[in-house]
Amino acid sequence: MNARETDVVALLTGQHEEIIALFPQAAESEQAFRRLARLLTAHEAAEQEVVHPHVRRQGGGRDSMIDDRLREEHEIKRQLSALDEMGTGHPDFPAQLESLRIEVLAHARAEERYEFSCLATLEEQARTSMIIALTATTSRAAVGENA
Fold first, then answer.
1. C-alpha–C-alpha distance, residues 33 and 89, integer Å
2. Of 10, 11, 91, 104, which has fewest CB within 10 angstroms of its CB?
3. What is the SS3 assignment for 57-98?
């Protein structure tokens, strides 16, 4: 097993890297944009179902941090939906995709800086359980997107 399969922070950070890396391809290809949209949607669904509730339960004033991430995710979803409606052939698509890329990058960095540090302190059993839950949620969300 590699680190992405056994470490929840490595798994999530790896997903962030994969999503960010797809943006240049998404600007060039409808298929790549669809892949980006599926991965981004599945990743955010998994975080909302598994990660955010766990961090919120830790207390210590983390509610506002999670609320900030949820607002960012709402904006990302709004922008992604607008791009989907626009279509990759629209003349404004590249500029709007770049706006989404900037939003996603800022959101990912905020999660990595503020939220993922809360996950790094989990005991091994909790980390394993979280990886299983994240993987299952990501898979369900990806299947739902393909339906």
1. 11
2. 91
3. HCCCCHHHHHHHHHHHHHHHHHHHHHHHHHCCCCCCHHHHHH
- What's the first-to-final CA gap in the chain, in angstroms? 31
What's the predicted TM-score (pTM) here? 0.87
Q: In sequence order, what are the residues at sequence separation of 6 or more whose Cβ sits closer than 8 angstroms to the Cβ of residue 15?
A: 39, 43, 138
* Beta carbons within 8 Å of 66's beta carbon, 6+ residues apart: 52, 55, 56, 115
Q: What is the distance between the alpha carbons of residues 22 and 26, in angstroms, rounded to a whole number?
A: 6
Euclidean distance between CA atoms 25 and 32, whole angstroms = 6
What's phi and psi for 26, nearest 5 deg?
-65, -25
C-alpha distances in Å from residue 137, one per residue of 34, 115, 142? 19, 19, 8
pLDDT digit string, tens, across residues 61-104: 889 999 999 999 999 999 999 999 999 999 999 999 999 999 99
Angle at 85 between CA 84 and CA 91, to 5 degrees: 90
- CA dist 146 and 101 (Å) reads 22
